Amino acid sequence: MSNIHRITVHDRAKGITHTFQVPDDRYILHSAEKQGKDLPFSCRNGACTACAVRVLSGEIHQPEAIGLSPELREKGYALLCVSYARSDIEVETQDEDEVYELQFGRFFAKGKVRAGLPLDED
Ligand code: FES
């Protein structure tokens, strides 16, 4: 029989807090959806980081979180779509694209991209 854990998710963008229960053999995002909780996600397979959260307390198991670098896992980020609870857990949602930019932002130029056609150089 699986253990049940209590999950608290602070959705910072919407200013609301969700609480729900998750068995330790089910993905947290999947269980949340089944209980009518509206959490951010996109790919559902650990690749896009749309569902990334900062773990405030508790223990998460996420062996399939391929979209998250080991450094960010160590910093306490998790991908809820492929995360299992190993205890009661409290997390908060990331700022928009926070995890994506932490991982990939440094590979791109910092300047703003301008809309429209490039100007002729003459
Ligand atoms: S929804 Fe894409 S990584 Fe979780």
Q: What percentage of amino acids are in beta strands?
A: 25-35%
Broad shape: globular
Can you tell me the CATH topology? Ubiquitin-like (UB roll)
- Mean pLDDT equals 89
Q: Which radius of gyration do the C-alpha atoms yield?
A: 17 Å
- Written as H for each helix and E for each strand, in order along the chain, the element string is EEHEEHEEEH
Q: Mind telling me the CATH superfamily name?
A: Beta-grasp domain
Task: Note the quaternary state here.
Answer: single chain
Strand order of the largest sheet: 2-1-7-3-5
* The level-1 CATH class: Alpha Beta
Determine the structural class based on helices, strands and strand pairing: alpha+beta
Structural description of this entry:
The protein is α+β, with helices and mostly antiparallel strands and 122 residues long. It has one domain (4-118): Ubiquitin-like (UB roll) (Roll). The chain is 16% helix and 28% strand. The chain has a five-stranded mixed sheet. A two-stranded antiparallel ribbon has the order 4-6. The longest helix is centred in the first third of the chain and has 7 residues, at 28-34. The structure holds FE2/S2 (inorganic) cluster. Residues 41-44, 46-51, 67, 79, 81 line the site of FE2/S2 (inorganic) cluster.
What is the topology?
Blueprint: E1 4-11, E2 16-23, H1 28-34, E3 52-57, E4 60-61, H2 70-74, E5 77-79, E6 84-85, E7 89-93, H3 98-104
Parallel strand pairs: 1-7
Antiparallel strand pairs: 1-2, 3-5, 3-7, 4-6
Bound molecules: FE2/S2 (inorganic) cluster.
Brief write-up:
With 122 residues, the protein is of the alpha+beta class. It is 16% helix and 28% strand.
